[in-house]
Design brief:
Elements (H helix, E strand, L loop, with lengths): L1 H22 L32 E3 L17 E2 L1 E3 L15 E6 L4 E2 L2 E2 L5 E11 L2 E6 L4 E6 L3 E7 L5 E6 L8 E9 L4 E9 L5 E9 L3 E7 L2 E3 L3 E4 L2 E7 L4 E9 L3 H11 L5 H16 L2 E4 L3 H14 L4 E2 L6 E3 L5 E3 L6 E2 L1 E2 H4 L3 H8 L1 H18 L5 E2 L12 H11 L7 H10 L16 H4 L2 H9 L11 H21 L3 H11 L6 E2 L4 E2 L29 H4 L7 H7 L3 H13 L16 E2 L2 E2 L18 H14 L16 H11 L1 E3 L6 E4 L6 E5 L5 E7 L7 E7 L2 E2 L4 E3 L7 E8 L6
Parallel strand pairs: 34-38
Antiparallel strand pairs: 1-3, 2-7, 4-11, 5-6, 7-8, 8-9, 9-10, 10-19, 11-18, 12-13, 12-17, 13-14, 14-19, 15-16, 15-18, 20-33, 21-24, 22-23, 25-26, 27-28, 29-30, 31-32, 32-37, 33-34, 35-36, 35-38
Helix pairs in contact: 4-18, 6-7, 7-8, 8-9, 8-12, 12-13
Length: 746
């Protein structure tokens, strides 16, 4: 009897643990609505890690906060489209809008009467990782989930007369639809394609949709009904009516290659009509991804910010190859991979700083995949991209940060790619040379192959009076990129290249004005251009990119000791740093960049050029100031709310900064595999590494008040420095912070 009782007790206890663990799934801490307000530019729809499909509602099509298609202040939805960008500052995608409707659509004055947008209340919408649902005011319920390359819609209608509009012209920011077509395959299947010119100048995307119930269809061109089962034009819609529309399901595969690819993607990934199963599979993919980092301690608010950040960090780059491994290359031709996956959506100016280093640490195999994709783009397009979007060079942003990503991976011994090819590709990014480069639109040339490269090559700096926008910022970034490549050259034994690149890496010194203490614009004679106001910004007519002299003066991550010397030593350096954080938080100029946000003094956490600056205090032995600022930023500029980000998410960079700091360290200069300590937020963080080992980070005596680091040990040995190397943690181990409420001066 005792054995029976113990068995029953053990079973009940085990079930209790199982139930408790089930309730503690990390998905509960993901809030996809974070960043959908303010200027976060995120979307709440369904996506899986690094998925091709981002099935999400579109609430607006114009203005800056339409970048993801969704904005939290809106109370109506235009429909649900299949691709979106997470947190960018520019707009594209929003392909194949599906809009449910009630009644019979009518022609009114020769036009299709608009049955959308559909009104809703935010209290009647929900989102979780891989799932979105909303109840509209008219009684329609819409739910979305996704696989990597396909979306799954489910609509419940309150009446017997209802249907779905498929709009192939819908777009964001007035993209041009250069070509589109639609074809009725049967009374349950429809397929089509479109070619658009927007941010990506030639973006091909195809779809194949299957419905669970038969439909009758009407085709429209320019909102006028046309006969037939096929239509090819630039402004087309299909209106589908269902006899018994109580619950209509639609599975939609997409492809950058062709309709065949879209169908194959759909059939391979969502073969059944089980919406909940697909939803559960999406959730399981996210749970597996989130479980790579487990945290203990902290508040539920902090856990939600952390895991939502991890969710946002793994949306992009996006899969861009089909299940049969075909993909559209940078030359717009169709290619086939020999293995692996091909990716697009590389927001490199942003993500090289923290998102890519985060992936380096927890998923180096993914880093290898990304770099192999970048190298294919180089081989097929002639140049590594600056901002790659759907097989297009966009020319967006500045610098050559594919070099930053590759050089950093190389420095960490992540080398699952042809390293000689990678070196050649990085070197090709330096000269002003248009030969052999394939661009899809002439307007791209000015940005992709900027004259700044030419002047930097010929004059040793970039003069702002030569009509080179962002001249000073470009000069500073090229110096950093060249330094990063120099480290690779040194390791490869390319001594002449190393010497040449190292000189270029120190050219930041030419922009520093010792009289004012700022990096400034130079004219063709190497003289500083005046008048000068370090708080001034002009978004599209300035020597500074998305910033001003206050922020850009500190863009020397590769040589902080050299910058300290330029400023006259540690005391002057600290004084200048203090001034940055304590000066008036006002950006001047009628056309000031809206990206300059999240201000602490003139430090702008809402945009990437500032993200490394707080750690400069560690270089002068004042780590408590770094810890105070890290604590302040994490507490004040990240919240569990739609406006919970102080700037654009930028494909995971804004969140990755939080994740690394909350763990307790940050990498200042990718290319140098060195971390510096920050302020750990949680009592314990366990990172499951790909090699099967664990990196454990503990914070002893941790509390909101104990924000200062008293001491740090790594694998039981006290760290005598504020810095440690990637290879010291890449194979696992234990990093222990002892926290205190008292300022610790080193």
């Amino acid at each position: 009897m005792k054995r029976i009782f113990l068995s029953i007790f053990f079973i009940a206890f085990s079930l209790g643990i199982s139930s408790q663990n089930a309730n503690q799934k990390l998905l509960q801490f993901v809030n996809p609505f974070i960043g959908t307000g303010g200027h976060g530019h995120t979307f709440p729809g369904a996506v899986v890690p690094f998925g091709m499909v981002q099935l999400s509602p579109d609430t607006r099509t114009l203005e800056w906060d339409a970048c993801s298609g969704y904005y939290t202040e809106d109370t109506s939805i235009l429909g649900f489209s299949h691709r979106h960008l997470s947190g960018t500052g520019m707009t594209d995608f929003a392909d194949f809008l599906f809009t449910p409707f009630l009644g019979k659509l009518e022609l009114k004055n020769g036009n299709l009467k608009e049955y959308y947008p559909l009104n809703f209340s935010h209290k009647n919408e929900k989102a979780s990782a891989g799932f979105y649902t909303v109840n509209f005011d008219n009684g329609i319920k819409a739910s979305m989930t996704a696989s990597t390359r396909a979306g799954f819609h489910e609509y419940t209608f309150p009446s017997k007369e209802a249907g779905i509009i498929i709009d192939l012209h819908h777009n964001l920011h007035n993209q041009k639809v250069l070509e589109s077509s639609i074809e009725i395959i049967s009374d349950t299947e429809i397929r089509g394609m479109r070619l658009t010119e927007g941010w990506s100048k030639r973006d091909y995307v195809y779809f194949h949709a299957k419905f669970n119930k038969p439909f009758k269809v009407e085709l429209y061109q320019d909102n006028k009904a046309v006969s037939g089962k096929q239509l090819k034009a630039d402004h087309i819609k299909a209106v589908l009516y269902f006899e018994n529309p109580e619950t209509i399901q639609a599975k939609v595969g997409i492809s950058p290659v062709d309709e065949k690819g879209a169908l194959q993607n759909l059939e391979a990934e969502i073969p059944n009509w089980d919406f909940n199963k697909t939803k559960q599979q999406a959730a399981a993919l996210w749970e597996k991804q989130l479980e790579k980092i487990k945290i203990e301690g902290g508040t539920n608010e902090q856990k939600t910010i952390f895991y939502t950040g991890l969710y946002h960090a793994f949306i992009h780059p996006s899969t861009y190859s089909d299940v049969d491994q075909r993909y559209r290359g940078q030359d717009l031709k169709i290619h086939t991979l020999s293995s692996g996956t091909y990716y697009t959506v590389f927001s490199l100016w942003d993500t090289y700083r923290a998102q890519m280093p985060l992936i380096d640490l927890i998923s180096p195999s993914k880093t290898n995949e990304f770099i192999n994709s970048l190298l294919l783009k180089y081989q097929q397009g002639g140049l590594l991209p600056m901002w790659d979007l759907a097989a297009n060079y966009t020319g967006t942003m500045i610098g050559a940060h594919a070099t930053s990503v590759i050089a950093d991976a190389y420095s960490k011994n992540i080398r699952g790619y042809d390293t000689e090819l990678a070196y050649k590709a990085m070197m090709r990014s330096i000269p002003y040379d248009t030969t052999g480069v394939k661009v899809n639109h002439p307007a791209i040339w000015e940005w992709l192959m900027t004259k700044g490269k030419k002047y930097n090559e010929e004059m040793g700096f970039i003069p702002a009076d030569k009509d080179v926008i962002y001249a000073t910022s470009r000069g500073l970034e090229y110096a950093y990129n060249d330094w990063a490549l120099a480290q690779v050259a040194k390791d490869m034994g390319k001594s002449n290249d190393y010497k040449w690149l190292s000189e270029r890496g120190m050219r930041y010194k030419k922009y520093f004005d010792k009289e004012t203490g700022f990096m400034r614009a130079l004219d063709s004679n190497g003289k500083f251009i005046g008048p000068f106001n370090p708080s001034f910004s002009d978004h599209m007519n300035s020597p500074y990119c998305e910033g001003n002299a206050w922020q850009w003066t500190w863009f020397v991550p590769q040589d902080v000791p050299g910058l300290i010397d330029l400023m006259g030593g540690k005391s002057s350096f600290e004084k200048n740093l203090d001034a940055l954080f304590n000066t008036t938080a006002k950006v001047e100029g009628s056309e000031a960049s809206a990206d300059i946000s999240g201000l602490i003094g003139q430090y702008a956490h809402g945009n990437e050029p500032s993200h490394h600056i707080i750690y400069f205090y560690n270089y002068i032995g004042k780590p408590y100031k770094t810890q105070e600022l890290a604590d302040k930023i994490m507490k004040e500029q990240y919240r569990n709310a739609p406006d919970g980000l102080s700037g654009n998410e930028d494909c995971g960079q804004m969140s990755s900064w939080y994740i690394l700091n909350a763990i307790g360290f940050y990498q200042v200069a990718p290319g140098d595999p060195t971390y510096t300590i920050s302020r750990p937020l949680f009592d314990k963080v366990t990172i499951d590494l790909e090699n099967g080992k664990k990196l454990i980070v503990k914070a002893i005596n941790n509390s909101p008040q104990n924000k200062y680091v008293e001491s740090v040990t790594l694998n039981g040995k006290k760290l005598n420095s504020l810095f440690f190397a990637h290879d010291q943690i890449a194979s696992g181990g234990e990093l222990v912070f002892k926290m205190t409420s008292k300022i610790v001066k080193n």
